[in-house]
Structure formats: C-alpha cells, structure tokens
Write a structure and sequence with these properties.
Blueprint lengths: L3 E4 L4 H11 L2 E3 L10 H5 L3 E4 L7 H5 L6 E4 L9 H6 L3 E3 L6 H16 L2 H9 L2 H5 L12 E5 L3 H12 L3 E5 L10 E2 L3 H7 L2 E4 L13 H7 L4 E4 L8 H10 L4 E4 L18 E3 L8 H19 L10
Parallel strand pairs: 1-2, 1-3, 3-4, 4-5, 6-7, 6-9, 7-8, 9-10, 10-11, 11-12
Helix pairs in contact: 1-12, 5-8, 9-10
NADP nicotinamide-adenine-dinucleotide phosphate (NAP) binds next to α8.
C-alpha cells in the first residue's frame, strides 16, 4: 500500500515525478481524503501538498501514521504548523529556489504600474499611437524611494534589484538587518510615510493579516504605489480598493489577492492597478526546482535522513 499521498493541483510533470518516485496516490484536494479507505489512510506516512486550501488538525487526524507534510511553495500558511507540531508531524517548504522569479515579478509590477505599461501597450495596439500620437507622459520610477515590507529571502532580492535601479532602499522587518546604506523603520506606517513605493514581501497567515492597513495606505499617499507579491491576507483589501477608487493611493501592482482566483471585480475597473494571476514563481524552471525540493524532503524523511528545509 502506498505510503505517500499527493494532495493538490499538481501539474502533469509534477504528478508523473511524484508517482515515479513514490508510487503516490493523488487527490485533487484535502476534501477527497474521506474517499480513501481507513486502511489506505492508515498507511500514509508522507503528504506532498500543493495549494491554498487549509490543511489542519482535522485532515492530519485522518492520517494517523502521518510523519511529514511537504509543502510545494515557500509560503505554508495553508498548513496548520502548530497542529502538525502537536502531532509530531514535520512540515517542509521550498524556500530560496523561487526568490529570483518572485523578485522579478515584483520589480515588473512596479515598473508596469509606474510606467503604465499595460495602458501604453493598449495605446499602441488600439491604433491610438498612429491616430492620436504619443502616449501621455508617465512617471519616473528609477531613483525613487522604495520601501520593502518584510526583508526576508524574497524581500532582499527585491531590494537588491531596486538598488540597481538607483533607488533609495528603506525597509521594515521584525528586527533590523545588516544592510549598510539601507534605512530601517521600526513601524510599517513610518516606512510607508518615507517612500514612494511600498513592496510587500511578508509571510502570510494570522500574524501578518491586514498589516498593510488603512493607516499604512494613507501614509503611502496619493503619489504612492503599492506592490504585493506576498499574500492577499496581508493587505486590508477593502481599504486598498477604497484608497485606489478615491485617489488616496496612486496605484497598485498585485500578484496576490483575497479569495483567489475569484478576486474582487472592483480591481478590474481600476486602470491604476496591474493585476497578475499569482504567478510569482510561475516559470518552468522554478516550478521544477520547487517540485524537486518537495520530493527531496519526502525522500529524506522516508529514508530517515535529515530534512532539507524543515519549518518545524
Ligand atoms: P521569509 O524569508 O521568511 O521572509 C518573510 C518576511 O516576513 C521576513 O521579513 C519576516 O520578518 C517577516 N515575518 C515572518 N513572520 C512574521 C510575523 N509573524 N510577523 C511579522 N512579520 C513576519 O520568506 P520569503 O521566502 O521571503 O517569502 C515571503 C512570502 O512570499 C512567502 O511566505 C509567501 O507568502 C510569498 N510568496 C509569494 C509568491 C508568489 O507567487 N507571489 C511566491 C513565493 C512566496 P523577519 O525578517 O523579522 O523575520
């Protein structure tokens, strides 16, 4: 009987690799666990997890022999790590291998929103360029002041890229980092007040929910642009929409939202917003690296070796 279960929307190559390596049983989501027989569930030692549906105590208790939940992704806010630890279940994630791609998307969102690149593309494609002439001037992004909310692995990659754009780098994290030349703020509102662009690279989950609050958005101000590549939960989305609709905030570049993929349609009505479908890590190369790290963690666990990237 198989001892590894793959749960979530794995792509065909990911499924094939998991099946080839572990002879996995595949489930579309945690709701399908109940469809397995009690014997099949009892045999499971490892779960390869993908997706944003919660995987918590109730699901773990359906798998009494579970020893590891290996998440596909660095953000593991869907998994109840406290419940896992209480049950002696290890959780792993896939850090670092996706830093470059997510940082690239953050920078692209900043440039696309600041330089109005989607609208400019439409201007050319629609024939306006030929009929009406030059696209209206937009704003300079290079050389501005950038604030990174959450200077972790991805946040640092974003900051390094923006430093190459001659930007003045400010940041908030729970503690000051060794970052000569960059300015630390001990409060997200103070950070937002100091910068033109605020790029959010925090973890998701209850601790950071709504950290980009109405006050932070107000402090960023009517020339401010917000970029979020972390999780939709980090932003007070109602406050953000209201600020964008009323001109309290200049614009937003967003890869992540509440209620993905059925996001609030008010975003689509705003031409100051650049929308991406949560594709920060979505390249063939990076997804393959994430999938391999997930499998390597499971293989390490099943062979009794040290886990590569343990969370708990
Ligand atoms: P990381 O290295 O752990 O950095 C996370 C940042 O969040 C750090 O600055 C950390 O502060 C802060 N943080 C952690 N726990 C916190 C808490 N309880 N309260 C306040 N701040 C807290 O993570 P990462 O690898 O850079 O990834 C960041 C996030 O990006 C992931 O968790 C995920 O949600 C998101 N992500 C999105 C995509 C996408 O496709 N858009 C792809 C990958 C990841 P300290 O520095 O003080 O520890």
């Amino acid at each position: 009987m198989t001892e590894t279960l793959a749960i979530g929307p794995f792509s065909p190559p990911e499924r094939e690799a998991l099946t080839a390596q572990f002879g996995c049983t595949l489930l579309a989501g945690p709701g399908d666990l109940a469809r397995l027989s009690e014997d099949a569930r009892a045999a499971i030692r490892a779960v390869a997890y993908k997706g944003h549906h919660p995987f918590g105590a109730a699901q773990m208790d359906m798998l009494p022999g579970l020893g590891i939940v290996a998440n596909f992704g660095v953000g593991y806010d869907a998994i109840d790590v406290a419940a896992a630890s209480e049950r002696g279940v290890k959780v792993t994630n896939t850090p670092d291998v996706l830093n470059d791609d997510v940082a690239d998307i953050a920078v692209a969102l900043l440039l696309m929103t600041g330089r109005r690149m989607v609208q400019a593309s439409d201007w050319a494609r629609s024939g306006n360029w030929a009929e009406r002439g030059e696209f209206p001037l937009n704003r300079k992004v290079s050389g501005g002041k950038a604030g990174i909310l959450g200077l972790g692995r991805i946040g640092r990659e974003i900051a390094d890229r923006l430093a190459a754009f001659k930007m003045d780098i400010h940041y908030w994290a729970r503690s000051e980092k060794d970052t000569p030349g960059w300015t630390y703020h001990d409060d997200p509102v103070a950070l937002a007040e100091a910068v033109d662009y605020l790029i959010v690279a925090l973890v998701g989950g209850p601790d950071t929910a709504g950290m980009v609050s109405r006050q932070v958005i107000r402090a960023l101000g009517p020339r401010g642009i917000l970029v979020n590549i972390s999780r939709g939960s980090v932003v007070d989305e109602e406050a953000l929409l209201h600020a964008l609709e009323s001109g309290v905030l200049a614009g937003a570049g967003l890869d992540v939202f509440l209620n993905e993929p059925k996001i609030n349609p008010r975003f689509y009505a705003l031409d100051t917003v650049t929308v991406q479908p949560h594709q920060g890590s979505g390249t063939v190369e990076t997804r393959a690296a994430m999938a391999k790290l997930q499998r390597d963690n499971i293989a390490a666990f099943l062979s009794g070796g040290p886990l590569l990237t343990a969370v708990n």
